[in-house]
Design goal:
about 280 residues; six-stranded mixed beta sheet; 5 helices; Nucleoside Triphosphate Pyrophosphohydrolase; binds zinc ion; alpha+beta; seven-stranded mixed beta sheet
Length: about 280
């Protein structure tokens, strides 16, 4: 696990390890492009950033200081791997490590100037990921956007939907951003009603997962159908339906919170039936 820690953030040094990104993708050596769960270990390098490369401290990985660098071009011998690919390869540990690095790198890149008075933000706080404006003291933190994702049950079926951008056959749960001033539970009720036109009840929290596309924090819930007919929101949901738990279409992999809440919901439904 990556140790986030509370110590003073070091500057890049020669014993540190580096995670390299290009346009949000992870860089790996061409020779190391082997499928498998150890990929993330191969993605960390002894690398010395030059003066023009910004390195952001991420924490300690196996007792070594870890930094992330965004490179403007792919160095010779490296190729890019999409972060989603790690998840779809069932590799949650590397995904979590890289997703933190990517969120911090995005924060550093997107906060070059104070958003209140436009003064350049050069230095970072030495103990936390904060940039403080030298002129007006405004603080900029890495952005984290809470979202909800919910698995909904009706009898022996669960609701699965396909967004307008998803290919045919790829179904998932209802999900969406939490609005200002809203509780997570209110966001669940609103998103479900907006996207498929039904009401839910008995909403219970399940678990959470950072979702760095680019900076969401997914909070997973289980819920039960209450009332209404499925009515997909035009332009957002291509199709949605109830699927019997013994006849499910392809569902998201269990490295994703979307897959985890479906699998655990079904386990819960089956153990309730057997009682
Ligand atoms: Zn300012």
């Amino acid at each position: 696990m990556l140790e986030i820690g509370t110590q003073t953030h070091p500057s890049p040094h020669q014993d540190a390890i580096f995670l390299l990104l290009h346009k949000g993708n992870v860089l790996i050596h061409h020779a190391e492009q082997t499928p498998g769960k150890e990929k993330y270990q191969h993605s960390l390098y002894d690398f010395q950033p030059d003066a023009g490369t910004n390195a952001v401290y991420c924490g300690q990985w196996q007792q070594q200081d870890l930094f992330v660098c965004i490179l403007t071009k792919v160095p010779k011998g490296f190729i890019e791997i999409d972060l989603r690919e790690l998840l779809f390869n069932q590799d949650e540990a590397s995904y979590l490590l890289i997703s933190r690095a990517r969120q911090l790198a995005t924060w550093d890149k997107d906060h070059q100037y104070c958003s209140r008075c436009s003064t350049p933000l050069k230095s970072k706080h030495d103990r936390e990921h904060t940039k403080i404006c030298p002129k007006c003291n405004h603080r900029s933190y890495p952005r984290i956007s809470p979202c909800i994702i919910v698995s909904i049950r009706k009898g022996d079926s669960i609701l699965l939907a396909r967004g307008t951008l998803s290919p045919p056959g790829r179904y998932s749960n209802i999900a969406g951003f939490v609005e200002a001033g809203e509780t997570l539970e209110q966001a669940v009720a609103r998103e479900v009603e907006e996207e498929v036109g039904i009401k839910v009840k008995n909403v219970t929290y399940h678990s959470s997962q950072p979702w760095s596309f680019p900076h969401q924090l997914m909070t997973g819930f289980l819920a039960e159908y209450d009332s209404g007919e499925i009515t997909p929101a035009p332009g957002e949901i291509e199709e949605a339906d109830w699927f019997h738990i013994d006849k499910l279409p392809q569902i998201p992999p269990t490295a994703t919170i979307s897959g985890q809440i479906i699998v655990n919901h079904i386990k819960q439904m089956k153990s309730n039936t057997n009682r």
